[in-house]
Design goal:
With about 250 residues, this protein is of the alpha/beta class. The chain has eleven helices and six strands.
Length: about 250
């Protein structure tokens, strides 16, 4: 998948009618509605490590190892802590999402594009509802969404597990065959594809060797057929989609 500038991407037509059926627009939050350069995850990452150090009485190196191991093996660090240690999720979510989001710039153009999409617009995140509300408000786009669904909605089953999507669909009344899902992690689009959704991978910039592990994992499985569309700029993609629907 080649890197393209926003100008090159905007000049590339979408397959005709590829979104005409969509009535439900589902957006992941982190690194999807804002670019990875905002690096909110570094704050969350630090606070997760601190929480694990205190909760499991570990030194920093061992806490970091546990944190990353659970992320890989369980889908989220939270899921690993709950599965292995029986931890209650509330305190963890409150602590790790107590971050400074002032570095996220408002994106009124993205808000305008989302507002023009025909049908329901929702956020579906592995994070907490408070975090989703905080970030969307900082972006200046919170009022354009009909609802936000978080990890509590899925009873703490994280994407990419199938149960997470099934519980989301049950709670949201989304019709998969009439839905499009936007995600920065390609493997999180496997189940939406299987359920009949149109999938869009919001591809992050190519990570260097010092990039966070979650960013390096974002491309895993991207070429396996479950990614229908790719963009490096969500605003440009939605504007192009709307122009071709007009």
């Amino acid at each position: 998948m080649e890197n393209r500038t926003p100008e090159e991407e905007s000049a590339t037509p979408l397959p005709q009618g590829s979104f005409n059926h969509v009535e439900h627009w589902i957006f992941d939050l982190d690194n999807t509605l804002y670019p990875p350069a905002c690096d909110l995850f570094s704050q969350v990452d630090r606070r997760m490590c601190d929480f694990i150090m205190n909760y499991l009485k570990l030194d920093e190196d061992e806490a970091r190892r546990v944190q990353k191991h659970y992320y890989v093996e369980h889908g989220t660090t939270l899921s690993g802590l709950m599965s292995v240690h029986g931890m209650k999720p509330g305190d963890f979510l409150d602590y790790v999402h107590d971050i400074d989001v002032s570095g996220v710039p408002a994106n009124l153009l993205l808000g305008e594009a989302i507002a023009r999409l025909p049908g329901r617009k929702v956020i579906f995140t592995n994070g907490s509802l408070a975090h989703a509300e905080n970030v969307a408000k900082q972006l200046g786009i919170d009022h354009h969404f009909d609802a936000m669904f978080d990890i509590a909605t899925t009873r703490y089953e994280p994407k990419p597990r199938r149960a997470a999507y099934e519980r989301f669909i049950e709670a949201s009344n989304v019709e998969p065959a009439r839905a499009a899902m936007f995600e920065d992690i390609a493997r999180n689009l496997v189940v939406p594809h299987e359920l009949g959704m149109t999938t869009v991978w919001v591809k992050p910039p190519h990570p260097d060797e010092n990039a966070p592990r979650h960013q390096k994992l974002s491309a895993e499985g991207a070429g396996d057929g479950h990614v229908h569309h790719v963009t490096e700029d969500l605003t440009v993609f939605l504007e192009r989609l709307l122009a071709e629907k007009a």
